[in-house]
C-alpha cells in the first residue's frame, strides 16, 4: 500500500486497495498511522447530500477538515457553520461535533492526530466497489450496535445515542 521512497517521501492516490464504503461515505486512506508511526492519518471522504455522522466525540484525536469540493454544515460544540470549497475547520478532541453535506456531494480531507481514524474506517468499512454507495440502506439495529462497539474501542462516543 505504501509508495514511499528511501528519502521518506510518500506518493499515494485513491485506489481499490485504500478505499472503503464507511457507513454511507466513500473513504480513501491516503496516509495511515502505519505510515506515520501513529502520529496522524489522512482520509479522503466523498459524501452525498444530507449524509453525515451522528453527533460524536473523539476522546483521543484532534481532527481537521479541509473541503476540496462542495459544502458541509459543521457543528462543533454549540456552534454551527457552513464550510465551503477551500475552507478548513479544526475540531479538537473532547468537543462533540458532526457535519451534514449541503451540496449534492462533497469531497474533503480529514486529518486525525494521532492516527486511529484510519483503523476505525478499515474495521467498520467494507472494500469499495463502484456504485456500492448507491445501495446503502438505513442502518439496522445490529449495524448500530456494531458501530457503538467498534467506536468504544477507538474512544469515540455519541452524546444522545
TrEMBL record:
InterPro entries cross-referenced by the UniProt entry: Cupin_2, QDO-like, RmlC-like_jellyroll, RmlC_Cupin_sf
Domain Cupin type-2 intervals: 45-109
TM region positions: none
Matching Pfam families: Cupin_2
Taxonomy, superkingdom: Bacteria
Record-given protein name: Cupin type-2 domain-containing protein
Protein species of origin: Cohnella lupini
Amino acid at each position: 500500500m505504501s509508495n514511499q521512497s528511501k528519502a521518506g517521501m510518500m506518493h499515494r492516490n485513491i485506489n481499490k486497495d485504500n478505499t472503503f464504503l464507511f457507513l454511507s461515505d466513500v473513504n480513501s486512506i491516503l496516509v495511515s498511522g502505519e505510515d506515520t508511526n501513529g502520529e496522524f492519518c489522512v482520509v479522503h471522504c466523498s459524501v452525498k447530500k444530507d449524509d453525515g455522522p451522528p453527533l460524536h466525540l473523539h476522546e483521543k484525536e484532534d481532527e481537521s477538515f479541509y473541503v476540496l469540493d462542495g459544502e458541509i454544515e459543521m457543528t462543533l460544540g454549540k456552534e454551527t457553520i457552513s464550510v465551503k470549497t477551500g475552507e478548513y475547520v479544526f475540531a479538537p478532541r473532547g468537543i462533540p461535533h458532526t457535519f451534514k453535506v449541503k451540496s449534492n456531494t462533497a469531497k474533503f480531507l480529514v486529518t486525525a492526530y494521532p492516527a486511529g481514524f484510519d483503523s476505525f474506517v478499515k474495521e467498520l468499512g467494507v472494500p469499495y466497489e463502484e456504485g456500492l454507495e448507491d445501495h446503502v440502506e438505513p442502518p439496522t439495529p445490529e449495524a448500530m450496535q456494531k458501530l457503538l462497539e467498534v467506536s468504544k474501542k477507538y474512544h469515540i462516543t455519541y452524546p444522545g445515542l
